[in-house]
Amino acid sequence: MKKNVTRNVALLLAFAFLATIPAQAGETTSTATTPVQMTVTVNTLGENKRTPVIDRDDVVVKQGNQRLEVTGWSPVSESGSGINLFILIDDASDPVVGSQFGDLRAFINEQSPNTAVGIGYMRNGTVKIAQNLTTNHARAAKALRLPLGSSGAYGNPYLSVIDLMNRWPDNANRREVVMITDGIDRFRGSPRYRGLNFITPDADSASRVAQRTGTTINTIYTRGVGRLANNFWEITNGQNGMAMLSDQTGGQSYYLGTRNAVSFQPYLDDIQRNLDNKYVLEFRAVPGAKAGLQHVRLSTEVAGVELNSADRVWVNAR
Fold first, then answer.
1. Measured between alpha carbons, how far apart are the two ends of the chain, in Å?
2. What tens digit of pLDDT does each residue of 25-57 get?
3. Which residues, in sequence order, are CB contacts of 162 under 8 Å at separation 6+?
4. pTM of the predicted model, to two decimals?
5. Hey, what CATH class is 83-276 in?
6. Domain limits of the chain?
7. What is the per-residue pLDDT across 144-197, written as a single tens digit (0 to 9) for each?
8. CB of 123 within 8 A of CB of 151?
């Protein structure tokens, strides 16, 4: 009888111990969660340009070490939403960028019917809208004009894109930006903000706003005008800011050293491939005490592809 009691106590202690072991990394836990959405680009790797079929169960989303429940996965074209695509041109750009407008107009005219295109010019830390979002792509293409060759008093492309993102229309369309700029912050001109490897803090602010609003930002380098545009440090810092902004928001950054590209066509072709492979991902994330951005990591075991998205997603509070 004594042996049986001892054995039963041992079993109870063992079960109690097992109950305290946390879920293994990679397993979905039952922690209270909230639904969120983000836009994902499916990129093919290597020479294989044919995108394989990816199902919802093939997508892995992790928040820390916790695997999250994926509740939805569909191409943007099948999700019931379209794309709001804004092309922003820095008014501080050298007007020679006008030689690229033929390729840019062709890119605009080739957009799908569910993509609304807008044209804006970055100046004085704001965006001057030349054409608001429209599915009349020919009208959008006609709105292109040569840049003024002047940044204004508060020249800062990162403040400008923030101004645009704060004015996004409230609809279900996915949000995409193509910024054509040298990335140089002409507003913060004191010696404190000079030197190699400096990235303006406004690039980080733009990144946070983009991730909060679900905006993917692609950047294309073109030389600007004035003394700063001929300074190697300023050019490098500007390109670093552009690259950081694109990387953190799930976009791509394009430049060819410190020179202008002969043609934007390869860049625009790559952006178009990414637009054609946009998906809407829905999952349940673990909220914090306050609403805010949460880091997530995406992956898939499907060979030959990678999932490209923003580093963080906005999650409402508990």
1. 51
2. 444 445 689 999 999 999 988 766 677 889 999
3. 202, 205, 206, 209
4. 0.87
5. alpha beta
6. 26-78+278-315, 83-276
7. 999 999 877 778 999 999 999 999 999 999 999 999 999 999 887 644 555 556
8. yes
